[in-house]
Each structure stands twice: as structure tokens, then as C-alpha cells.
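Because showing beats explaining, we think one record worth quoting, sequence and C-alpha cells together, and here it is:
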Amino acid sequence: MSIAFYFLIPLKFLLLFWSSEINLPVAHAVFNSALLDFLVDLIPFILLLIYGRKLLRSEWQKIASLKKYFVNVVLGYLVIEIIVYATWSFFPSPVVGEKIINYATPSIILFSTSGLMAACVEEIGFRYLFLRDFSGRFKDWILLLTSSFIFGFLHIFLSHSFLGTIPYMLIGLVLGLQYVYHKNIWYSMGTHLLNNFMIGTLPAIVVYLMHH
């Protein structure tokens, strides 16, 4: 395993902090915000592609049945949706609000793929490293809860409050359980990718098509 994996999440933290300090002009705020998100996720994603492509290829080849794989991914996504809407009234968070997109251009659609890149980076950092590389050093349930907590807390840049990160922590728990059960990063990654596609990229595509 590449040591570069250990730098993925810290790098994203630093980039998120950097982006939060930038004062964007009010004009074209949607475009500027989407561009910043895209750059924040692009840099760690490129690092992952350079050092992790062999791992991802190897893990994919271990999947015995694509049908069962996609069924598990969809089920995982549905569980996440239930959690999000069940906790929305108690812990308001942009997890649901992110779906509301009123303005889209081809550039916005491209930038919306930042969520897909983030899913790949976060699954390696929070699931693969915590639940595989650290396995044996600590009890699995401790690693599962710790990774879920840190995963949720990372999203404080979106929720702007600790309570708002709780739905993300629960999402991290679902993804972690997927990895623990299947022992293959593509299960949690697939679910994460589907979720981020549904709340980010797909709405942008739909809005663009509705206005063109």
C-alpha cells in the first residue's frame, strides 16, 4: 500500500481550510463555489489515481458477481437516504439541501463531479486505511466508530455546525459496515459514488437539460 494514501485526507483538510478562507465575489457565486469545490477534490483525486490505480484494479477484479455488487450498492444507497431523511428534522444539514440546484451550465456539471472524486478519496482514507490497514492494532468497532466520527466531522465545512455533521457520521457508519462485511473497497465506494451522483451531478444535469 502506498504511503501517499495517508496524505489524502490531511491534504483535503488543508485544501478545505484554504478554500473556506477565500472570499468569493457575489457575482457568479454558484460558479465560483463549484469551481473551488472541484479544485479541492481534484488534487487528492489525482494523487489517488497516481498511487492507487493498481489497488483499485485489484479490488475490482475480486468482485465475483456484478449483479450482486450493484444490488448491494443500491441497497446501501437506500439505507443512506433513509438515514438522511430520518435525521433531517433533528440535525439540519446540507445533505438534503445539496439536492436543490437552480442554475447549471456545462461547467457547473463538470464541477459537480467533485463529489464523485471526493467519494473515491474518502473511501480510501476513511474505510480502506482505518478498517484494513489499522485492523489488528485496534478493535474493529473502535476503528469503525472512529472513522465514522472523523468522516462526519470533515463535513463541518458543509454543515457549519457539529450537530449538522451527525447525519454524515451515520452515513460513514453505513459505508464502514459495508466495507467490514464485504472486505472490498468497491462496495462502500460504489455506494458513496451513487449517493454523491444523485445529490450533485444528476440534479445539475437535469436542471441544465430543463433550461436548454
